[in-house]
């Protein structure tokens, strides 16, 4: 069975991310978490597991619309 990766991900990227977190100290991890909560453009929330795939779909649609909107403003 071949592993499937999300769009834009491959084995190399997965290994890079894993390496980053495996080498990270507890203090570095805590600092990264604190910075994530300070980002006013993002939020953290609990959602039912059954809705995760739908939320991911919405995020992909949002990013696509945002990307297209930016491209339109740059290249009218």
- Average pLDDT confidence is 86
Secondary structure tally: strands: 0
What percent of residues are in strands? Answer: under 5%
- Note poorly predicted spans: none
Main beta sheet: strand number and arrangement?
A: none
The helix fraction, in percent, is 55-70%
| Broad shape | extended
**How far apart lie the N and C ends?**
45 Å
In N-to-C order, the SSE pattern is HHH
Number of domains: 2
Helix/strand-derived category reads mainly alpha
Radius of gyration: 17 Å
Number of helices: 3
Summarize the structure.
This protein is mainly α. 64% of the residues lie in helices and 0% in strands. The model has no long low-confidence stretch (mean pLDDT 86).
Task: Note the topology.
Layout: H1 11-23, H2 26-38, H3 52-74
What does this 3D model show about the protein?
By secondary structure, the chain is mostly helical. The protein has two domains: about 1-40, no CATH class; about 45-75. The chain contains three helices and no strands. The longest helix is centred in the C-terminal third of the chain and has 23 residues, at about 50-75. The protein is extended. The model has no long low-confidence stretch (mean pLDDT about 85).
Write out key terms for the chains shown.
64% helix, mainly alpha, extended, 76 residues
């Amino acid at each position: 069975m071949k592993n499937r990766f999300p769009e834009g991900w491959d084995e190399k990227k997965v290994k890079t991310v894993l390496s980053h977190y495996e080498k990270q100290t507890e203090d570095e991890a805590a600092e990264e978490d604190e910075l994530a909560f300070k980002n006013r453009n993002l939020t953290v929330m609990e959602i039912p597991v059954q809705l995760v795939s739908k939320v991911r779909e919405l995020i992909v649609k949002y990013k696509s619309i945002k990307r297209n909107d930016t491209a339109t403003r740059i290249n009218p």
